[in-house]
Amino acid sequence: MLVLGIESSCDETGVALYHTERGLLAHALHSQVAMHAEYGGVVPELASRDHIRRVLPLTRQVLHEAGCTLQDIEGIAYTEGPGLAGALLVGASVAAALAFALKLPTVGVHHLEGHLLAPLLEENPPAFPFVALLVSGGHSQLMEVTGIGQYATLGDTLDDAAGEAFDKTAKLLGLGYPGGPALSKLALQGTPGRFKLPRPMLNSGDLNFSFSGLKTAVLTLANQNQQDEQTRADICLAFQDAIVEVLTKKSVAALKQTGLSRLVVAGGVGANRQLREGLSHAAGKKNFKVFYPKLEFCTDNGAMIAFAGAMRLRPEGRRTMNFPIKPRWDLAQLEACPA
Ligand code: KG4
Ligand code: ZN
Q1: β strands within the chain, DSSP E
Q2: Is the model's pTM score more than 0.70?
Q3: What does pLDDT average to over the chain?
Q4: Domains detected in the chain
Q5: SS3 assignment, position 97
Q6: Which ligand is nearest to the CA of 269?
Q7: Which of 29, 36, 166 to mutate for ligand 1's pocket (most ligand atoms within 8 Å of CB)?
């Protein structure tokens, strides 16, 4: 089955074609980062308007790259939630309109399920069951994954998500938006050990996270020290060390608690090099295997939506003019995928 996938939940328009036998045929992305950078964060109305502009040209592009036509598509997947309502509506309505015109089934995909299944696009995909560390701009969760749609929450963030903590900390250090990549780049020049920040909830005895206190600690450090480039780099490194240590140790604890030996890392923060190094190091020591998507499939993309949609689409699936969206949607509430 050839599935067109459309991602439009936040500030990236992603479109892809995934074939259940032939794999990923093409994918294309337009990032709105430059447009939102001027405002220091995502402006929802601008995001929606830009998705409208990009989604059809990107669809034409992937069809061209895959050597396919609209008539070859057999099903359409779009991001149903969670995300910005207006942005989600663009992908949802375009998917519904195309499906109506082409008489095709549609499926709404949970954005985080897309992230979580993205490592399955790789050559040596993880087998179920596994533990997933989902670290994106809006979520920091540890999940026990027993199959597609079978997700049990092991731990969640009590306040800011890891990506959000990166973004807010970068902002208060004047590094602009999006903060994660900028902060980790500056941290490369940091002096190890100059500053030490707390490891929130490291010994809480559960698998939950809390990152909002870290940004306050960073603010205090920034106020106490001169604001030169080296100091900012040293603070970035201390911040990243704290987040990486907490994410790594809680992931190891989740593997121990579930008795599993495979860890999947997904979501934008999964692109962080130091986190990857920390987890790979722990994997060697504690004897587990860690799986990542390609860097470009860590952050938002259409390939993960086409893939997750392909797992859930059936030729006899939904064919209505409705295009539901769910701006808020708990991953653990998803239904298991029928075999
Ligand atoms: O998964 P994603 O693309 O979008 C959401 O679903 O939220 O994640 C975006 C988040 C942002 O907070 C961004 O700062 C963070 O991922 N991020 C990073 C890196 N690349 C992206 N954080 C740390 N290090 C990175 N290299
Ligand atoms: Zn995402």
Answers
A1: 2-7, 12-19, 23-31, 75-81, 106-110, 130-135, 140-147, 150-156, 262-266, 289-291
A2: yes
A3: 96
A4: 2-116+299-333 (3.30.420.40), 128-292 (3.30.420.40)
A5: helix
A6: 1
A7: 166
